[in-house]
Write a sequence for this structure.
């Protein structure tokens, strides 16, 4: 499936579902006589290399010609300043209560007008790497921000003859135009001290203003692509997926869902000591077809933290560009990186697809299991969830903690336990859509559901080795699950040293409180955003049943 780039004159009607005030305002800016079209990734690299503030390291890009760069290309570093994470408080979504489209579109018109004397660059890329699902996206950004443009083209699939042919093979999606994103990191407005990330998801456009952090462009683009996928028969996934190719000729496809810092990249790329032949789809963005259970990756490269990778780590061999980390000279006078978040939190790097030697862009086999990665001290290392409603609502009430990848509004407690439905804070459509799609996968596609606690159980940290061991037991079919207490739809695999004591009243009180937190969160969707994210009553009742079974 593919989006539509152009429309015939007969289609250009005021009532055309592919047009809106916001889309017309944003798209028109792409055709100004101050706009220069970027023709290749190699051209963009040269611009980024000479952009103000770029640090050209002496680290060579591995096999650059395989990813569209010329021989001799170096890893480029750029640092943003004080802000090194996403800013959720800056997001405004057309259709949500309190979002004044007329006011925002007027501000976007002014923002476009104020770039008239500056050179703007138009970069194009594909989102989705298989002809089952491909979206064409366009980014417009002012001169002096070439590194942001370069990172965007590295993160997504830059235009090539091969992918253009694939795109043309795709069946066209009805009423879906290409994505258009206008960005001006230098913009400022007193009404938006944290910047403005505005989305018109039904018309596939966005304006990202006053925001320098690359993650805003990355996740802003995915926000729109996930919305398109949702409208066209896919479950949109912020997580990782891999296939275990087992010795008996069978396979096991696992999807892991978690926010930054939850361990989804660690689990997705884990080699398990060489025990398995593993195929990786992606560690951050993919979609699952409700029609046949197959999955498609949306991005070729990886946007990964640098915190856990010292400069001598072999994983750094596949760096393409780096953001918000330090630099120094080595003994030979070469410019190298200072990683491990010494300069600031949430240092980031884009790694090439070569990082995963067994990488694919589509997994045809249906998903076998979904693992929700949570950080909830009341939970043991692994639980199996039964029942499609409970399995889906546990994803809707996924519990985690804030990470350094997010820039928080004043007054928000960074240590508080929070809920992020399906680990996806970038949803631009009603939460019910995700709930129903994941429920369908559990109920009609035979997908199993598990919770992995990747944080602490009570006061004890759960090591990643235990998490991976639990996952391996499920994959190999050796996991011994039994009913957990009185819960009719929860089973536990007991892990030595992490067996919860349901006879301990203090522990029961904590678990009960956490279940009530989930129930309250789901019920609060009835009022938040004017009921935009309201879920069916069965969702809250599935959790209520757990609370009743504790008594």
């Amino acid at each position: 499936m593919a989006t539509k780039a152009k429309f015939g004159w007969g289609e250009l009607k005021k009532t055309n579902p592919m047009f809106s005030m916001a889309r017309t305002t944003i798209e028109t800016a792409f055709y100004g006589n101050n706009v220069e079209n970027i023709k290749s990734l190699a051209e963009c690299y040269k611009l980024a290399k000479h952009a103000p503030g770029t640090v050209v390291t002496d680290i060579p890009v591995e096999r650059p010609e395989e990813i569209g760069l010329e021989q001799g290309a170096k890893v480029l570093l750029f640092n943003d300043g004080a802000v090194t994470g996403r800013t959720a408080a800056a997001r405004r979504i057309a259709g949500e209560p309190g979002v004044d489209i007329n006011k925002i579109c007027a501000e976007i018109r002014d923002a476009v007008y104020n770039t008239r004397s500056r050179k703007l660059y138009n970069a194009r890329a594909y989102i989705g790497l298989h002809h089952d699902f491909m979206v064409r996206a366009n980014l417009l950004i002012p001169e002096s921000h070439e590194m942001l443009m370069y990172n965007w083209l590295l993160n997504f699939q830059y235009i090539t003859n091969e992918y253009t042919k694939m795109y043309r093979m795709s069946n066209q999606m009805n009423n879906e135009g290409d994505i258009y994103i206008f960005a001006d990191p230098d913009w400022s407005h007193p009404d938006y001290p944290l910047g403005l990330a505005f989305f018109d998801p039904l018309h596939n456009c966005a304006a990202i203003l006053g925001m320098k952090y690359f993650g805003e462009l990355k996740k802003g683009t995915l926000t729109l692509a996930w919305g398109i996928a949702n409208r066209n028969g896919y479950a949109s996934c912020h997580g990782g997926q891999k296939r275990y190719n087992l010795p008996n000729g069978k396979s096991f496809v696992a999807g892991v869902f978690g926010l930054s810092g939850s361990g989804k990249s660690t689990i997705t790329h884990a080699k398990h000591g060489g025990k398995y032949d593993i195929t990786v789809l992606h560690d951050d963005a993919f979609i699952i077809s409700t029609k046949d259970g197959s999955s498609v990756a949306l991005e070729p490269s990886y946007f990964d933290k640098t915190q856990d990778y010292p400069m001598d780590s072999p994983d750094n061999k596949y760096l393409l560009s780096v953001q918000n980390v330090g630099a120094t000279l080595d003994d030979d006078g070469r410019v190298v990186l200072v990683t491990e978040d010494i300069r600031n939190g949430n240092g980031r790097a884009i790694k090439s697809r070569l990082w995963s030697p067994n990488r694919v862009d589509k997994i045809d086999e249906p998903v076998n299991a979904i693992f929700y990665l949570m950080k909830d001290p009341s939970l043991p290392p692994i639980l199996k969830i039964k029942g499609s409603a409970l399995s889906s609502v546990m994803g809707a009430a996924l519990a985690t903690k804030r990470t350094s990848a997010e820039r928080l509004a004043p007054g928000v407690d960074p240590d508080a336990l929070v809920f992020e439905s399906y680990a996806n804070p970038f949803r631009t459509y009603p939460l019910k859509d995700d709930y129903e799609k994941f429920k369908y996968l559990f109920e009609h596609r035979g997908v199993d559901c598990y919770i992995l606690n990747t944080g602490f159980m009570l006061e004890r940290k759960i090591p990643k080795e235990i998490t991976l061991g639990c996952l391996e037991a499920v994959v190999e079919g050796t996991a011994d699950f039994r009913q957990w207490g009185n819960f009719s739809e929860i089973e536990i695999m007991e892990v030595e040293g992490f067996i919860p004591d349901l006879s301990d009243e203090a522990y029961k009180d904590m678990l009960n409180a956490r279940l009530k937190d989930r129930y309250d969160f789901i019920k609060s969707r009835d009022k938040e955003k004017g009921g935009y994210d309201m879920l069916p009553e069965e969702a809250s009742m599935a959790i209520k049943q757990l609370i009743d079974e504790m008594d």
